[in-house]
Amino acid sequence: DAMVIQNPRYQVTQFGKPVTLSCSQTLNHNVMYWYQQKSSQAPKLLFHYYDKDFNNEADTPDNFQSRRPNTSFCFLDIRSPGLGDAAMYLCATSRDEGLAGGQDTQYFGPGTRLTVL
Amino acid sequence: DAKTTQPPSMDCAEGRAANLPCNHSTISGNEYVYWYRQIHSQGPQYIIHGLKNNETNEMASLIITEDRKSSTLILPHATLRDTAVYYCIVGYSTLTFGKGTMLLVSP
Predict the structure, then answer these.
(1) Angle at alpha carbon of residue A40, lines to A78 and B27, rounded to 5°
(2) Over 90: is that where the pLDDT of B14 sits?
(3) Å from A5 to nearest chain B CA?
(4) Is A45 in contact with B100 (Cβ distance < 8 A)?
C-alpha cells in the first residue's frame, strides 16, 4: 500500500562525497517535491517538478540538484555535502500544481535522514 | 516566509477535544488554509483544508472565520496517537511550513 517510497531511510555520507537520494510513487501524480527538514525546524521546499518542468526555489543552494527520469521516480543529488546539509529529506507528491482550483493535497514519504561525517 | 502564526505548544487530555488556533491575517482571496501534522520522525500527513466554508472529515474539523483571517483545527476526541506537530499553512499550490504547534496529548 506504500504510496510514496523513499530509499534509503538512513544515509551516511562523507563530507564532500556526492550522494543521491531517491523517491518513487505509486500514485501517478504529476507533481513531485523535495523538502529539507533540519533538526527541530519545519520542512523547507527545495524544488518541485510539475511533470517534467523543474521549479527551483530561489534560495535553494546550487549544491542541490534533482532529476525526474519518469513520472514515478525523482532523485535528489547533493554534489558536495557539507556538515550543514545533514537533515531529513522529504519527498512529496500531488496530483497537480493547484490547477484544480488550488485544492492539491500533498502526500509525503517517510523521509531519508542524511548524516554527513 | 510562512504567513501563519500558531502557538508553539498546547496540551490536551486524552478523549477531550483539541482546538488548535491559527492566525493568517494576510491571506489572499484565492489562498486555501491547509492543515498537516507530523508525528515524530515521520513525514507530514495531510489533515484537512478549506477556502471559506467550515470543513469536516474523518480526522478533524476546520473552522474558518468569516473574514478568513484565522482558523481553528478541531480534533474532537484526541488520542495519544494525535501527539504531533500541527502545521497550519496558507497557500495556493506549494506549501510554506511555519513552526507549527506541538500538541501533546496526555492520559
Answers:
(1) 95
(2) yes
(3) 11
(4) no
